[in-house]
Specification:
heterodimer, A: alpha+beta, 2 domains, 4-stranded antiparallel sheet, B: about 300 residues, mainly alpha, 15 helices, globular
């Protein structure tokens, strides 16, 4: 029994060390994608997936935020902005940091499917029965961080890009 | 190295019995960090995970398909049930911290934490990921063999001796390996980025307004300082991933790592990330040194908890 337990633990250790290493170490080898594909169902299912790309390989080179223009049924409009950490106090930004992370993820192309949910949430947040939202327009704003030769920094002008125009349906406001 | 030597080294590393005090202390720190994470999220439990959340459950399941450990996809869809999962997480994290029904609560905390992250992966950072992974291996560790209510109960019932018995550290080693891999992987990824090699990476990091916490001194932005800073980060991450296993370097690297993370905690607003990572440093401290530190604290505070 003890021997069976010892063998099982060793198999567990060897498997997990190899699997975790192949999952997160970025080396160019044809074996790595093969291993990743093999362990993917287990890792995703059990919650062992991971990535350690803190400011890597290239740190983000722009300050960004997302703004929403809410257009109401009566034709009026309002601008709503995700909580911006640089405008919050120390305690508040500690509690609200998840908004920064979420806004960052909203701007990634692979997360386009999140935009409609976000637009619906903003519509609900900014509507009431007397004044329902008709359209939500999500706009990405960015200002590049450009180092000068003497390493000084002057903020670049803000640029913008429309992420989504969403027609609000009555059921979205329920 | 001969094969027999390799087997011997493997056995020594994973199975040579040692005091469970480091893993027990890690359990306490881990539990406190899970509690802190949940409490920081408390005002927004339903905002991020409720029925009308920023990311709906159907969207989350569509974006992250497949069978996943996620309580939110099996409980009845109501805000009351969702809040119940969070209260359950908080309760089990408190019990895990004090070491009551330790094994059961370590399983429960891992399931809850993984579910919370799986439900909305778009607001999690590396510290959350590390807590999830460490939580998985903590399940298998003798985390209640010291510093726990479980142990006090066992002693009271005469099932355990008053002195702490050594245990096999293989699960603790996996958490240590996970931490080392974290540093090594991020080091390798940074090597693929020109700004890190050129030494300009920190210029961008320090100018991200959304991440800034406290004011930084102007000399920090001098090109030479930025280069030294960027390259030092690379060297330290490599060292904490690889050289940490060399006993002679360990404490100096832990001290440098501590300073590194404290600096990041000062300069960047990524709540709890640094503490999530630092919590596992205790696993690299020799149990005798921990005992000596415990005795010193005990003498200073007239508390002898580490020796119970």
């Amino acid at each position: 029994m003890q021997r069976a337990k010892y063998i099982a633990i060793n198999a567990f250790l060897a498997f997990h060390i190899l699997a975790i290493a192949s999952w997160c170490i970025p080396i160019d080898s044809p074996l790595v994608p093969l291993c990743r594909n093999l362990v993917r169902p287990y890792f995703l299912g059990a919650g062992l997936f991971q990535s350690w790309d803190m400011f890597a390989p290239i740190p983000k080179a722009a300050n960004t935020y997302i703004e929403a223009i809410v257009v109401y049924q009566d034709g009026s409009r309002k601008t709503w902005t995700f909580p911006r950490m640089e405008q919050l106090g120390l305690t508040e930004k500690y509690f609200k940091e998840r908004y920064r992370k979420f806004a960052e993820n909203l701007q990634r192309d692979e997360n386009d499917a999140l935009l409609r949910d976000a637009a619906r949430y903003i519509a609900r947040l900014n509507s009431n029965p007397a004044k329902p939202a008709k359209t939500v327009i999500l706009i990405q704003k960015w200002s590049f961080i450009v180092p000068r030769k003497d390493a000084s920094y002057v903020p670049e002008p803000w640029e913008q890009h429309m992420l989504l125009g969403y027609g609000v349906r009555p059921e979205d406001l329920q | 190295m001969r094969l027999q030597s390799a087997f011997k080294a493997w056995n020594e590393f994973f199975f040579a019995e040692q005091s469970p005090t480091p893993i027990a202390l890690f359990r306490v720190l881990y539990g406190v960090l899970v509690i802190a994470t949940l409490l920081l999220l408390r005002p927004d439990w339903l905002t991020w995970y409720g029925i009308p959340a920023w990311v709906s459950l159907p969207t989350a399941l569509k974006l992250e398909p497949g069978a996943r450990l996620n309580l939110f996809s099996i409980i009845p869809q109501s805000d009351a049930w969702i809040e119940a999962v969070f209260w359950l997480s908080l309760g089990s994290a408190i019990l895990l911290t004090i070491g009551f029904m330790t094994r059961f609560n370590s399983v429960l905390v891992f399931i809850c934490l993984t579910s919370i992250q799986q439900r909305n992966l778009y607001i999690t950072h590396g510290g959350d990921t590390f807590l999830r992974l460490a939580g998985f291996f903590l399940i298998f560790a003798p985390a209640g063999a010291a510093l726990s209510v479980d142990r006090l109960i066992r002693i009271r019932w005469g099932k355990e001796r008053a002195d702490i018995q050594p245990r096999s550290p293989w699960a603790q080693r996996m958490i240590q390996l996970q931490l080392a891999l974290l540093y090594f992987a991020t080091f390798l990824l940074k090597l693929k980025g020109a700004p890190w090699l050129q030494g300009t990476a920190l210029f961008y990091v320090y100018h991200l307004d959304e991440l800034r916490r406290f004011p930084l001194p102007s000399w920090l932005f001098h090109p030479t300082v930025l280069k030294l800073g960027s390259w030092s980060a690379l060297v330290l991450e490599f060292s904490l991933g690889v050289l940490i296993w060399v006993k002679e370097f360990r404490y100096i690297l832990l001290a440098l790592g501590l300073l590194f993370h404290l600096w990041l905690e000062y300069s960047l607003n990524i709540p709890l990330f640094q503490w999530d990572i630092l919590s596992a440093y205790v696993l690299f401290v020799d149990s005798d040194d921990l005992r000596r530190a415990g005795n010193w604290i005990g003498r200073s505070m007239d508390v002898h908890f580490l020796n119970r």
